[in-house]
């Protein structure tokens, strides 16, 4: 159970309410919606931090899937980048909505801002103190000498697009910076399929800021949230590809789980062998065993 709508009788009056099992619900569009039981992203964590301006706004809330994405990506990036952390800006406000969003979107818990990795005037890694506006060559317009750290920003974007925690629909970014990342990826020999997947996600918005001072990540609605009014708009191709990959993976794993003992491979350690007197029991589909969507296992209660 995610949530059910009920009518509450209070002193002769009826009120529409929501009883939730504690997991998040994203309702509506990213630019016109709200958030129920959103999870809060800590101000500090493994591989990520924020700055005072975003702490004061307190737009630190998102769906369970978005929070898992941010923390998971930051944790993995920390294994590659040891000297600076990812700086995370706004997510959504408590309850979502647009009243305190400071954005046209960020209303339904599926959006998060990341500040570009940077280098200082001497070319040394620099943990961003704020958002800095960059020109078409990745140089700060404020004469600080800061530049976009293209290799590390490429690693971050690649990690976001491939992250298992949630399917990313968009990485909004200034197009000249996007081109710098893609050219770097080709130069270092990244597979064509990886570059193509990232290219599909990268987009400079035509109806809002051009995102030359930060990147803005949006994830698709979860299947469960769609049942409660979450609305995606824009291309759905990346979600379809993610779902196809996920189903193929689960089919492979389910086949291994249900395979007779004599046909199991070495990785099926821990299952007792079938004997002539034992009766095989039908294997439930792995999705039902996990009792979750195919793309994530919800362990929020264990945090």
Radius of gyration, rounded? Answer: 22 Å
Structural class: alpha+beta
| Percentage of residues in strands | 15-25%
Mean of residue pLDDT values: 82
Helix-strand topology string: EEEEEEHEHEEEEEHEHHEEHHH
Helical content band = 25-40%
CATH class: Alpha Beta
Strand order of the largest sheet: 9-15-13-14
Architecture per CATH nomenclature, i.e. the level-2 architecture = 2-Layer Sandwich
Query: Looking at the chains present, what oligomeric state does this protein adopt?
Result: single chain
Number of structurally distinct domains:
1
Question: Would you kindly provide a written description of the structure presented here, covering whatever features stand out?
Answer:
This protein is α+β, with helices and mostly antiparallel strands and 303 residues long. It has a single domain, classed as Muramoyl-pentapeptide Carboxypeptidase, domain 2 (2-Layer Sandwich). 29% of the residues lie in helices and 18% in strands. It is built from 8 helices and 15 strands. The strands form 6 sheets. Strands 9-15-13-14 form a 4-stranded mixed beta sheet. It has a 3-stranded antiparallel beta sheet with strand order 11-10-12, with no helix packed on it. A two-stranded antiparallel sheet has the order 1-2. A hairpin with a 2-residue loop joins β1 (3-10) and β2 (13-20). The longest helix has 22 residues, at 237-258. The two termini are 20 Å apart. The model is unreliable at 4-17 and 264-303 (pLDDT under 50).
